């Protein structure tokens, strides 16, 4: 099981990065890990199902805020975390019900607006959320425990995703992505599948939010804007939507670039923009897709057979 | 009118058309026959510069048009009624028809529109509806009408009878015969043998991207080898 | 070079400023003033542990987003650069959890948010009078000098400084017996304020109070004037003439007419010669009208030097923090501190300056002092009214 | 109440002009054109710097519109054109372009707000209890004129018809001899012009800054969906409805949640009509 | 024993227009019904109602005595009704094998052929591992039928399956449909304008015109029906 091996390996790597790095780099490591967890969820609905879900930052923030609020009511951290995740999954269900009849860009813009409204709530419901400046988060887990949970979540998340991806659920989602009407006509209960994917996706985002809040110590509306949703969406695409490791690669690329490029105000952003475009143009299937295409070409060149007819898609990287 | 010489078309690893040569004269209907995947559609697309040509020279009306892009070919007087109709589903039927006469003056477009409505009466009654709502056969009729809107001197038709009821096939056949009589050159890709018989004087048979037989239609169709191999049991 | 002579040890401290984003009217000016202060300090340097030292500031931009960029910058400064003290502007509450994990004294040069930042953490110091110390002056002045009996308040919702101001204005208005004619809001991110403005003006107030920072209120002010309102406008944004010109455009002079600003004392209107000299230097060097906050920023290096000297360490945050609490008003500072108990700079981590109401001088691109005052127990004390002359 | 309506209509016109630019590009290329914000910003700055350099306002405005058109076409030629067959890649490219354009503006002009002055700054229209400032009235007029012009172009001219055709089936349009490249460039050109119009029309009420278009763009995207992707009249109707609903909600319920009212509107419309107010999708599932 | 599929007075309106206007018929297991009629007479729409693509405006469809209409396409499939489309629809980038596996997975325990056998039956053995989009247009139409068969239908609805096929190919297709009907007892409704293909294949033929049933009977009866000749078959 190379997939499982990879998942465990990534967990270990995540742990080493989180404990080994500090300051700026530590922050980058944290964000990469947190985003990876959130993007694993997104990889279900968007990667496999092809639904551009821009509510992800709202779910992410929902988990962070909700767990912080619940923790302050005196609940044990684990209970607060589970309740927060469950609450966000319920919200995910509602969002999915509302927008499940819409497709493509309609879905994208509907969910994007949902995030915009969630950000409004985070900003304005100051009694609960601390308002625009954010809300300090009490320590529910020790910092060490949080780091272990973060690292473990990456592995568990990837394993779960792999399992979902090779199961019938994964096939059904891929079918929805390819042609939703046709999928219905070969018997796929599309609405139910979409709802389930959206709810799972929201759950992963919420859990990532819980851990992010614990680690960062403060959550603020600016961390959960529709811009973040959009960035997550792009990250998954850049990493390789639908591929097992797409979330990790996408998170590393986007977070790494946004946080580590420091060429002065403006310039970093311009370079970032150019890089986004270049990666998109050069690697249509994301970085992972590009890598495997390159690997294929190298292998073909080495064996002397320029086998250009190979056209895999939706494969698990 | 049309002279295609040594046309070769490849899609990546697949060679769809290999060295096909054919001619079509004004006022006649030239058939292109062949089994599925023989390269008929690709040949028509190649003529109109819509498929990647590896080789081939195309002469139209005495002029070498090999290097022309599709726009220039259309302006020169070539029109294609494509496989699968390809109407613009969200645009009105009338807009679809008008697009067939893209690049002509407003007055011309209006006249031709009126001619089309005269020719296909029911189309006029539904002209404001989105084309995507029509039934398959109705769309096919509109697609043919759209191709006629440019008043082409060379009309390429890719299976115009598909989806049409037998009566409608006869009607379309009559229209096409009219057009040919008026001096247009027609190239007809068709599986409907009855239509081929009715319209075509000569035909080419393609197999695996190559011309394997050509000549007057009655002779071709009576050649049992040809009919068995490429046309199935003829009726 | 500005960072000292080669034979001195360079001490690095941090500064987290809003160099971009909606608070970008504040950060760059602070950076300018900090730079002036550092250079002045380093001309002579300071001595700690028997060695001559010079100061260097490591600047970070919080992009007006303390919770995300600011916290990251704080971690970076503390964990990687190991700075022993940090100057900063806005976002105090956001830094508290990180301060709990890794304490470091943080000296605030700007944050006036209501009800105050000092209760958030023991590691925070405030070098200025906060909004509760100057907002009561707005209403006091409006009532007595402008004859205001009713006022409409327009608030930027989702902008903490503005939300705090509105609470203070409401409270002070009550205390002064000024009626709040209307209380209208607009979301921070919006670009059209017509609903808030119509509601405020429809109540026919004697004056309008705009609650938020410069970059936010000036466009509102412009639309307010475009909508036909010509009455007095009061705010606590610290608008300077350069900003007014840039953001308001050609009509700025008429738009700024009848504008009153209550905030810290301005270096340009100050009676203190040190402050006046600083104002001149600053204006000459940067071709920009200095805001109140420039004085506090300018003084930060001197405060650090004094604390390090007293603590006899350049690296131990805890000792430096303790020393901050004990130092007197340092030499070379220009802010005009109101000294606390025993001449100390900080009383309960709070250093205060007098507050001021300024008024726009039409046709002169400058501000005049209309009232200088202090506030005790939410009430204005010791008001003085300079001659009403411009320039 | 009537003042709130007037305010809403003003906002609606602004949303509509921006949204129509988006919907046009979406219609032709299936691109969610976030870079439109950057186009607006650069147009506004160009107008600002031209008038700061002493050009009369009308000329400065033309310069701004020209800049919008140019930048918009450049985004197409340099970026979008290369992903024409991959709509899924469009969001990443759009985000990249938005970052580039906004930050180019930031580098060139700095982050502080700038005021754009117009000759009609001091005009104030009053009718009964309702007033509308000259700059806003000018926006309404500009919006109506440019949208009408666009409508005529799209519905009455061969060019407009061809543009809609390219939007629906590129290959079929090509077969009819319609030059696709030119249609794309044209769509972006028109969108850029509209972006420029939006910029010079509303910058005077607000300020010129690299972030001036962010909020408007979000609303405009909602308008695009409300109206049905690719539908110009839908965008106009959607813009007005959104402007008025948000205005009423903010005036009578809660200004802080202004955009939430738009969201509720969006949700209710999408639940009733998943294809938007003016759903144009006539594709059959058969 | 009553019929497998019972269609009772089905009406389907789009806006004001009745595309299907009161159609009734019954169909037994293993039977092949040919459905013909002029363009726009409502054949595709009728199939859509049977397959759950459209909800009927009125009337109902029962399968084995249970109502099957108006509950969405995937429920129709799980009840045992599968259809193909008039214009080709496939999961373009999927290989045929992947698509069949999906359809097979939704079969819900009904008996049916394994994927390989379905592919071989339709002459698609070589195409199993190629992406759908790379097949020729006729192969794509066959693949669509394979997909429908893989769901293990009891009623199979085919919309112009022989379009674009030459005589040999159409004959092979007819044979395959016959086998499915015979060996699996699938009831088949097939719409096509190719009479050489349809007439030999159908047990009974139903003719629609303007949404309603114009005539029904054996192929021979239909061929000689005056009204059908006038409106549909022509003088051929
Ligand atoms: N765009 C394409 N990409 C890859 N291969 C293609 C493409 N178009 C056609 N082909 C291949 O080229 C060959 C010829 O196809 P073409 O469509 O020209 O045949 P045809 O004679 O029109 O067949 P049909 O009767 O099915 O329409 C086929 O093998 C087909 O799969
Ligand atoms: N979604 C729809 N909206 C409006 N009208 C429709 C819709 N679908 C079908 N129609 C109309 O209903 C009528 C019947 O169409 P249908 O496709 O069922 O015909 P058909 O018998 O299959 O014709 P063909 O032989 O041409 O395929 C047509 O007039 C068509 O325009
Ligand atoms: C944003 C505010 C804290 C600063 C403002 N200039 C003031 O003096 O109060
Ligand atoms: Mg073909
Ligand atoms: Mg049909």
TrEMBL record, chain A:
The chain crosses the membrane at residues 28-45, 77-99, 106-125, 145-164, 270-295. Keywords: Cell membrane, Membrane, Transmembrane, Transmembrane helix. It is a multi-pass membrane protein. Its main location: membrane. One of its GO terms (cellular component) is plasma membrane. Pfam families: BPD_transp_2. It is found in: Cell membrane. GO terms for molecular function: branched-chain amino acid transmembrane transporter activity. PANTHER family: HIGH-AFFINITY BRANCHED-CHAIN AMINO ACID TRANSPORT PROTEIN BRAE, HIGH-AFFINITY BRANCHED-CHAIN AMINO ACID TRANSPORT SYSTEM PERMEASE. This is Branched-chain amino acid transport system permease protein LivM. It comes from Actinokineospora spheciospongiae.
Automatic annotation (TrEMBL), chain B:
Keywords: Amino-acid transport, ATP-binding, Nucleotide-binding, Transport. Coiled coil: none annotated. SMART domains: AAA. Residues 2-233 form the ABC transporter domain. InterPro entries: AAA+_ATPase, ABC_transporter-like_ATP-bd, BCAA_Transport_ATP-bd_LivF, P-loop_NTPase. GO terms for biological process: L-amino acid transport. One of its GO terms (molecular function) is ATP binding. It comes from the Bacteria. Belongs to the ABC transporter superfamily. This is Branched-chain amino acid transport ATP-binding protein LivF. It comes from Actinokineospora spheciospongiae. The lineage of its organism: Bacteria, Bacillati, Actinomycetota, Actinomycetes, Pseudonocardiales.
From TrEMBL, chain D:
The chain crosses the membrane at residues 6-27, 57-80, 92-110, 130-154, 184-204, 216-245, 252-272. Keywords: Amino-acid transport, Cell membrane, Membrane, Transmembrane, Transmembrane helix, Transport. The keyword Chaperone does not apply. It holds the Pfam family BPD_transp_2. GO terms for biological process: amino acid transport. Belongs to the binding-protein-dependent transport system permease family. LivHM subfamily. One of its GO terms (cellular component) is plasma membrane. This is High-affinity branched-chain amino acid transport system permease protein LivH. It is a multi-pass membrane protein.
UniProtKB/TrEMBL annotation, chain E:
The keyword ATP-binding applies. InterPro entries: AAA+_ATPase, ABC_AA/LPS_Transport, ABC_transporter-like_ATP-bd, BCA_ABC_TP_C, P-loop_NTPase. It holds the Pfam family ABC_tran. PROSITE patterns: ABC_TRANSPORTER_2 (PS50893). The keyword Cell inner membrane does not apply. GO terms for cellular component: plasma membrane. Residues 5-235 form the ABC transporter domain. Keywords: ATP-binding, Nucleotide-binding, Transport. GO terms for molecular function: ATP binding; ATP hydrolysis activity. This is Branched-chain amino acid transport ATP-binding protein LivG. It comes from Actinokineospora spheciospongiae.
């Amino acid at each position: 099981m190379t997939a499982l091996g990879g998942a465990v390996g990534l967990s270990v790597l995540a742990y080493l990065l989180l404990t080994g790095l500090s300051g700026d780099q530590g922050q980058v490591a944290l964000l990469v890990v947190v985003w990876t967890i959130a993007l694993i969820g997104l990889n279900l609905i968007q990667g496999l199902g092809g639904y551009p879900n821009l509510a992800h930052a709202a779910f992410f923030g929902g988990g962070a805020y909700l767990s912080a609020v619940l923790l302050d009511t005196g609940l044990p951290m684990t209970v607060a975390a589970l309740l927060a995740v469950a609450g966000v999954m319920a919200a995910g269900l509602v969002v999915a019900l509302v927008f499940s009849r819409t497709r493509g860009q309609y879905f994208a813009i509907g969910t994007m607006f949902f995030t915009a409204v969630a950000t409004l709530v985070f900003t304005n419901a100051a009694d609960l959320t601390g308002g625009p400046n954010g809300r300090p988060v009490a320590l529910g887990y020790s910092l060490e425990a949080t780091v272990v949970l973060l690292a473990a979540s990456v592995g568990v998340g990837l394993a779960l995703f792999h399992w979902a991806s090779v199961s019938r659920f994964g096939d059904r989602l891929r079918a929805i992505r390819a042609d939703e009407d046709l999928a219905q006509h070969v018997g796929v209960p599309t609405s139910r599948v979409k709802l389930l994917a959206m709810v799972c996706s929201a759950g992963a985002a919420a859990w990532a939010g819980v851990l992010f809040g614990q680690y960062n110590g403060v959550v603020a509306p600016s961390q959960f804007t529709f811009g973040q949703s959009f960035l997550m969406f792009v990250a998954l695409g850049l990493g390789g939507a639908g591929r097992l490791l797409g979330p990790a690669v996408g998170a590393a690329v986007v977070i790494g670039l946004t946080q580590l490029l420091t060429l002065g105000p403006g310039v970093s952003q311009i370079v970032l923009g150019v890089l986004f475009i270049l990666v998109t143009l050069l690697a249509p299937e994301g970085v992972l897709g590009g890598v495997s295409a390159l690997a294929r070409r190298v292998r073909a060149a080495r064996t002397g057979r320029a086998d250009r007819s190979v056209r895999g898609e939706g494969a698990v990287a | 009118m049309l002279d295609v010489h040594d046309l070769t078309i490849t899609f990546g690893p697949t060679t769809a058309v290999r060295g096909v040569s054919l001619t079509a004269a004004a006022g006649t209907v030239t058939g292109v026959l062949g089994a599925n995947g023989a390269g008929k559609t690709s040949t028509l697309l190649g003529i109109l510069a819509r498929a990647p040509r590896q080789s081939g020279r195309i002469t139209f009306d005495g002029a070498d048009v090999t290097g022309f892009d599709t726009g220039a070919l259309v302006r020169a007087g070539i029109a294609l009624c494509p496989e699968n109709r390809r109407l613009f589903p969200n645009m009105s039927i009338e807009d679809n028809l008008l697009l067939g006469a893209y690049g002509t003056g407003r007055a011309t477009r209006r006249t031709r529109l009126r001619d089309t409505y005269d020719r296909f009466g029911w189309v006029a009654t539904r002209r404001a509806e989105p084309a995507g709502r029509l039934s398959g056969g109705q769309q096919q009729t509109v697609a043919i009408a759209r191709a006629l809107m440019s008043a082409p001197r060379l009309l390429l038709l890719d299976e115009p009878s598909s989806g049409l009821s037998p009566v409608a096939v006869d009607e379309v056949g009559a229209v096409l015969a009219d057009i040919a009589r008026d001096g247009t050159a027609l190239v007809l890709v068709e599986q409907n043998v009855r239509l081929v018989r009715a319209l075509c004087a000569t035909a080419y048979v393609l197999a695996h991207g190559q011309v394997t037989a050509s000549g007057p239609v009655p002779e071709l169709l009576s050649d049992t080898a040809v009919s068995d191999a490429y046309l199935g049991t003829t009726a | 070079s500005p960072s000292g002579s080669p034979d001195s040890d360079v001490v690095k401290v941090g500064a987290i400023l809003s160099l971009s984003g909606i608070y970008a009217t504040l950060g760059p000016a602070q950076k300018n003033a900090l730079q002036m202060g550092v250079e002045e300090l380093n001309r002579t340097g300071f001595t700690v542990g028997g060695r001559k030292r010079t100061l260097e500031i490591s600047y970070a931009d919080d992009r007006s987003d303390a919770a995300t960029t600011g916290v990251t910058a704080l971690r970076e400064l503390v964990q990687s650069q190991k700075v022993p003290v940090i100057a900063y502007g806005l976002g105090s509450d956001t830094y508290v959890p990180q301060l709990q994990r890794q304490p470091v004294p943080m000296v605030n040069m700007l944050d006036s948010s209501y009800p105050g930042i000092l209760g958030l953490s023991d590691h925070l110091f405030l070098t200025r009078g906060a909004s509760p110390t100057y907002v009561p002056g707005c209403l006091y002045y409006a009532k007595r000098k402008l004859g205001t009996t009713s006022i409409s308040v327009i608030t930027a919702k989702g902008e903490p400084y503005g939300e705090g101001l509105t609470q203070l204005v409401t409270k002070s208005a009550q205390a002064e017996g000024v009626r709040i004619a209307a209380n209208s809001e607009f979301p921070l991110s919006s670009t059209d304020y017509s609903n808030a403005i119509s509601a405020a003006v429809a109540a026919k107030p004697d004056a309008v109070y705009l609650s938020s920072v410069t970059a936010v209120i000036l466009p509102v002010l412009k639309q307010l004037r475009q909508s036909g309102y010509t009455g007095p406008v009061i705010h606590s944004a610290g608008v300077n003439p350069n900003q007014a010109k840039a953001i308001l455009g050609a009509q700025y002079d008429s738009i700024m007419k009848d504008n009153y600003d209550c905030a810290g004392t301005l270096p340009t209107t100050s009676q203190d010669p040190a402050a006046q000299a600083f104002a001149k230097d600053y204006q000459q060097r940067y071709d920009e009208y200095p805001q109140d906050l420039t004085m506090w920023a300018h003084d930060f290096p001197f405060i650090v030097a004094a604390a390090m000297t007293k603590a006899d360490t350049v690296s131990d945050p805890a000792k430096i923090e303790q020393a901050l609490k004990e130092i007197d008003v340092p030499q070379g500072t220009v802010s005009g501190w109101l000294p606390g108990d025993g001449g100390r700079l900080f009383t309960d981590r709070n250093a205060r300056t007098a507050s001021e109401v300024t008024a726009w001088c039409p046709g002169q691109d400058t501000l005049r002092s209309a009232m200088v005052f202090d506030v005790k127990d939410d009430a204005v004390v010791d008001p003085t009214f300079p001659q009403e002359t411009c320039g | 109440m009537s003042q709130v309506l007037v305010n809403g209509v003003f906002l609606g016109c602004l949303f509509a002009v921006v949204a129509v630019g988006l919907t046009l590009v979406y219609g032709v290329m299936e691109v969610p054109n976030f870079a439109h914000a950057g186009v607006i910003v650069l147009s506004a700055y160009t107008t600002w710097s031209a008038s700061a350099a002493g050009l009369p306002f009308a000329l400065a405005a033309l310069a701004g519109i020209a800049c919008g058109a140019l930048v918009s076409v450049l985004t197409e030629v340099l970026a979008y054109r290369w992903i024409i067959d991959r709509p899924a890649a469009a969001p990443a490219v759009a985000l990249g372009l938005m970052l580039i354009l906004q930050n180019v503006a930031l580098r060139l002009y700095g982050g502080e707000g700038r005021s754009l002055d117009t000759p009609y700054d001091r005009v104030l229209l009053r009718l009964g209890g309702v007033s509308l400032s000259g700059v806003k009235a000018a926006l309404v007029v500009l919006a109506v004129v440019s949208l009408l012009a666009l409508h005529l172009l799209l519905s009455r001219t061969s060019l407009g018809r061809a543009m809609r055709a390219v939007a629906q089936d590129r290959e079929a349009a090509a077969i009819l001899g319609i030059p696709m490249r030119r249609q794309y460039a044209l769509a972006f050109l028109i969108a850029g012009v509209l972006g420029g119009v939006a910029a010079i029309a509303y910058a005077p009420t607000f300020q010129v800054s690299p972030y001036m278009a962010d909020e408007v763009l979000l609303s405009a995207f909602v308008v695009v969906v409300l109206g049905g992707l690719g539908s110009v009249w839908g965008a106009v109707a959607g813009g007005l409805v959104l402007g008025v609903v948000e205005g009423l909600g903010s005036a009578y319920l809660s200004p802080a949640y202004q955009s939430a009212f738009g969201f509720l509107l969006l949700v209710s419309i999408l639940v009733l009509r998943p294809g938007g107010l003016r759903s144009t999708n006539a594709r059959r599932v058969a | 024993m009553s019929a497998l599929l019972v269609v009772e007075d089905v009406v389907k309106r789009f806006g004001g227009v009745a595309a299907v206007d009161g159609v009734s018929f019954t169909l037994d297991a293993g039977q092949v019904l040919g459905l013909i009629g002029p363009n726009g007479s409502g054949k595709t729409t009728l199939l859509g109602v049977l397959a759950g693509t459209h909800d009927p405006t009125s009337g109902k469809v029962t399968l084995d005595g249970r109502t099957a209409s108006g509950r969405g396409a995937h429920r129709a499939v799980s009840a045992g009704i599968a259809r193909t489309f008039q214009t080709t629809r496939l999961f373009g980038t999927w290989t045929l094998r992947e698509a069949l596996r999906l359809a097979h997975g939704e079969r819900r325990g009904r008996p049916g052929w394994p994927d390989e056998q379905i592919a071989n039956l339709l002459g698609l053995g070589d195409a199993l591992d190629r992406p759908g989009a790379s097949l020729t247009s006729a192969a794509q139409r066959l693949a669509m039928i394979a997909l429908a068969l893989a769901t293990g239908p009891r009623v199979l609805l085919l919309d112009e399956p022989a379009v674009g096929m030459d005589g040999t190919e159409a004959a092979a297709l007819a044979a395959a449909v016959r086998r499915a009907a015979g060996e699996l007892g699938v009831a088949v409704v097939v719409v096509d304008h190719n009479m050489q293909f349809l007439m030999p294949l159908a047990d009974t033929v139903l003719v629609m015109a303007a949404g309603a049933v114009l005539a029904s009977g054996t192929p021979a009866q239909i061929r000689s029906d005056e009204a059908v000749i006038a409106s549909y078959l022509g003088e051929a």
